[in-house]
From TrEMBL:
One of its GO terms (molecular function) is glycosyltransferase activity. Residues 184-331 form the Glycosyl transferase family domain. This is Glycosyltransferase involved in cell wall biosynthesis. Keywords: Transferase. It comes from Mucilaginibacter frigoritolerans. Pfam families: Glycos_transf_1.
Length: 368
């Protein structure tokens, strides 16, 4: 059997992109081929998430140019075993594409405007960092220009990427993790307790303090019509201690919990019993939005989560401006609106699925 190559340079933790890789690898297997994940390091043992996935770790190096040449050499040495074109995932993969010639497919995830800014350092270090950034951007520009096809996740992303790289980007909407058991189809907001759920990596761009501010308002406001409020913010990340401390300072210890990583079964439990799913993040997509809707859970989302473009006229989803005040107000509005008139299921019938996304990627790569 031929090998379909997925190149993702650095795997440090399990998140949305890693989930996409597993979905893509599963589709490769369904189509009778061998999925091979090529990277410079895999700190989480990706084959542990899918037995038939093969991981090839090309020897890492401090110099990215050396890494690029090692990647090119490996692909050349194994070209007779490869199926179609290799699939390069992420903007960093585009950097390494500068050493190729129109023989790979690039999927650009988060556009540069969503990347976290660097922490200010000394004048000399800032100058060196700026120089390195300019060189990196120049190489990435060349890498993107050399891709046979460039793809991204939303039309919003294409506007920035096409302006930056001066070439066409196609859009394939990603899908989320489908339910692993029967879903709760009963109308939400019918209990005495208002249950709110959110799951993501706990970092600054996710704006999870907005959920705490919203929870504090809900707890203090008896007009919402519930006896109590329970909020679960799942996931791990660098802001865990900060958010736990902030929650305590806001007097929310009894209302907000941070369970960390949840198993698939635990995630299903949360979706089954929650009334509302919150996504205050600023991000290139937002897979959990789809996963909540698959399970008939209403959502409030920040417009800066670019998946929001899919739901501008969907009564299951209310979109806020990129401010904590408007996000809090939209949460209140959504609760009252849905209690007044529950949305019809027809609005959540034809959502993108991860299998559809993976199949379309395979078509672009000439794997089938």
């Amino acid at each position: 059997m031929k090998k379909a190559i997925i190149f993702y340079p650095h795997i440090g933790e399990y998140g949305g992109i890693e989930r996409n890789i597993i979905a893509l690898a599963s589709e490769i297997i369904r189509n009778g081929h061998i999925p091979v994940l090529v990277c410079f390091y895999d700190h989480i043992n990706m084959p542990g998430y899918l037995d038939q996935l093969i991981t090839v770790e090309i020897k890492d190096h401090w110099n990215p140019l050396v890494k690029s040449l090692r990647l090119k050499r490996w692909l050349k040495q194994n070209k007779n075993e490869l199926l179609g074109l290799p699939f390069f995932m992420g903007g960093k993969a585009g950097f390494y594409g500068a050493f190729f010639n129109n023989n790979y497919i690039l999927h650009y995830t988060d556009p540069p405007s969503l990347l976290s800014p660097s922490v200010p350092k000394s004048a000399l270090k800032n100058w060196i960092a700026t120089l390195r950034s300019h060189i990196s951007n120049f190489i990435t520009f060349n890498g993107v220009s050399r891709a046979k096809v460039c793809l991204t996740m939303t039309n919003w992303n294409t506007k920035e990427l096409e302006s930056l790289y001066r070439r066409k980007f196609g859009v394939i909407y990603q899908g989320g993790l489908p339910p692993t058991r029967s879903i709760n189809q009963s109308p939400r907001f019918n209990g005495k307790i208002l249950r709110i759920f959110s799951i993501s990596r706990l970092n600054t761009s996710k704006n999870l303090d907005w959920i705490l501010e919203t929870a504090q308002y809900l707890v203090k406001n008896s007009k919402i019509g519930f006896e109590d409020v329970e909020v679960v913010i799942a996931g791990n990340g660098p802001q865990m201690n900060y958010l736990q401390t902030l929650s305590k300072e806001m007097g929310l210890e009894k209302n907000v919990s941070f369970p960390g990583f949840l198993t698939t079964e635990q995630v299903e439990d949360q979706y089954s019993k929650c009334d509302l799913f919150l996504v205050p993040a600023r991000q290139g997509y937002g897979l959990p939005v789809l996963e909540a809707l698959y399970r008939h859970v209403p959502v409030v989302i920040n417009v800066e989560s670019h998946i929001s473009e899919m739901f501008t006229n969907n009564p299951w989803v209310l979109i806020s401006d990129n401010t904590v005040d408007d996000f809090r107000n939209k949460v209140l509005n959504h609760i009252f609106k849905i209690k007044e008139q529950y949305p019809d299921n027809s609005y959540i019938k034809n959502l993108p699925t991860e299998q559809d996304w993976a199949f379309q990627i395979g078509q672009q790569c000439n794997w089938w």
